User: What shape does this take?
Amino acid sequence: MDVGLGLGDVADLQLPAGGRHQLHDAEKASLAEAERAHIRAVLDECGWKISGKGNAADRLGLKRSTLQFRMRKLGIARPGRGE
Assistant: This one.
């Protein structure tokens, strides 16, 4: 898989020949863990604001409702509130 990014470039993702790539359960878990860690880091940087000025949804390039959905899906809760 080759991904090259520069300013103003679009990622060029090349998948292996032969159709769809099947991920094993361990790889899927790793992807979810990476997504969870990234979202939590951005939430921490934004003071857990998901809407309003300087919010996490904007920094992640997501709509507020999409961020809320992913947080529920990944089991992310604000510390001290259900965690």
About this structure: The chain has a mean pLDDT of 81. The first helix runs from residue 25 to 45. Helices lie at 25-45, 56-60, 64-74.
